[in-house]
Design goal:
about 0% strand
């Protein structure tokens, strides 16, 4: 029988690309030729390192990724590309691990890799994801040791200022960028426009849109249009929002489902729900598939209008079109029904969720619990509470206090005792509940049950 042909460095890269499971990819990388008799070390390539590091980083297997990085550091045959470290920094930024990102950046020279503006920008972006604005300033000030800032650098800094709501600082950065001979691009203006739209300063946002076209020769991108349309809908200027959508079409910028969802939400907000069907028809004509977000916007809009029959129809339409309703779909209806005092209908939908392929979450339970308590159906509320505690969920503290107060007012000491035992299991009995219960017991002269209640409130030793 012929022996298996050893895996070559080139073949290893091909196998790593094909392997979807990061654990199996790691095993393959660490031992590409398990049956080989030769003691000669395997000669890894930069590409194989890049592939396995990327797979581990995406899977957030950071301990394993760091082991591979250490191996790369010790493999002195190779001089790693900067992109490898840019990716690692990005992975740490997405995982909200800013100190790890900083450490990798600082250690790049020990890997024989020179830092340039690309790795600086990756670090700034990672720190931005982690909201470490103090460190961003520190990195920017010290970057002249190894790189000069480019437009991307300033875009990240402007984004940080906008996230902080510091528009004056954003303009200072913008002017510094211009003084250094760097031209703003579409991303620069889209970031500034979004901040104005978030603050509902639509006059300033449209002035900036005009300036970018007139003075810089730049056309707004989809991101800028999305912000403007959302801002217009936020201030009730739905007609202008639709005009802007038409401008997008004229400029050959794709109108996606997120834009249509914003427009639909805007129509509901100004009481023009009858026009929603026209938007849906346009979506279908433009071959833009309705997604869960768009359906959820409609469900939420109908629930706010207390048109629950329409909301249920949307839920059924989702299932019919193969777009599976998610937890937000159900919670929107449950929350709307509970606010309208229809807790029984809400409970029916809640109980039907598992059959529909969606498991209630803590928000589902809390909304239903509050709705049942508002309906003064304390026995039903106690059952929901038991189920919540069993699943590791607890109502909001204010909801618990209102529930216990309602039980005290009703005078059902047996149910009160049962509820307190459930709350004790969840370790959510506070001083306010204690004082409320003791006061009630003293008024009712039910002192004989005090020892049992004390045991419940104090809990096991």
């Amino acid at each position: 029988m012929n022996a298996l042909k050893p895996v070559s460095p080139f073949r290893l890269c091909s196998l790593l690309r094909l392997q979807k499971d990061p654990n199996l990819a790691l095993s393959l990388f660490q031992n590409p030729n398990p049956d080989a008799c030769s003691k000669k070390p395997f000669r890894y390539t930069l590409l194989s390192y890049d592939l396995i590091i990327s797979k581990l980083g995406r899977a957030k297997m950071f301990n394993e990724m760091e082991q591979i990085l250490l191996q790369l550091k010790n493999d002195t045959r190779l001089v790693p590309n900067e992109i490898i470290f840019c990716n690692v920094i990005k992975f740490y930024g997405r995982a909200r691990l800013p100190d790890h990102a900083l450490k990798v950046f600082d250690e790049m020279p020990s890997y024989r890799c020179q830092r340039t503006v690309k790795s600086v920008n990756s670090l700034l972006d990672a720190l931005l994801n982690c909201r470490r604005f103090d460190k961003m300033r520190e990195v920017f000030v010290g970057m002249e040791k190894y790189a000069f800032p480019d437009t991307c650098t300033y875009n990240v800094l402007i984004h940080a200022c906008c996230l902080n709501g510091c528009m004056d600082d954003a303009w200072v950065v913008f002017e510094e960028m211009r003084r250094k001979g760097l031209e703003p691009n579409g991303v620069t203006f889209a970031t500034l426009i979004k901040r104005f739209c978030v603050d509902l300063k639509m006059k300033e946002a449209f002035k900036l849109k005009e300036d970018m076209v007139r003075f810089f020769g730049l056309s707004p991108n989809a991101y800028a249009y999305s912000s403007l349309i959302k801002g217009l809908c936020g201030v009730g200027e739905v007609n202008l929002a639709f005009e802007l959508k038409e401008e997008m079409v004229k400029n050959n910028i794709k109108v996606d489902s997120a834009i249509y969802s914003t427009l639909i939400s805007g129509l509901f907000k100004v009481g023009r729900k009858d026009e929603v069907s026209g938007v849906l028809e346009e979506i279908r004509i433009n071959c833009c598939k309705l997604d869960t977000i768009t359906y959820n916007v409609m469900i939420n809009g109908f629930c706010k209008l207390k048109d629950f029959e329409a909301a249920y129809r949307i839920l059924e339409e989702m299932a019919d079109t193969g777009c599976k309703p998610d937890i937000i779909s159900y919670n929107s209806i449950i929350g709307g029904l509970c606010k309208d005092g229809k807790w029984s209908d809400a409970n029916d939908l809640f109980q039907d969720m598992p059959r529909r392929g969606c498991i209630p979450d803590v928000v589902s339970y809390r909304m239903l619990f509050d709705g049942i308590c508002s309906g003064l159906e304390f026995k039903e509320a106690a059952l929901i509470l038991d189920e919540m505690i069993f699943k590791g969920y607890v109502p909001h503290s204010a909801s618990i206090n209102r529930f216990v107060d309602g039980l005290c007012q009703e005078g059902n000491i047996n149910l009160l005792s049962r509820v307190l035992k459930s709350l004790g299991k969840g370790n959510v009995i506070d001083r306010e509940i204690w004082m409320m219960v003791i006061s009630k017991i003293c008024k009712e002269e039910k002192l004989s049950i005090v020892p049992d209640l004390v045991d419940t409130l104090v809990g096991p030793n």
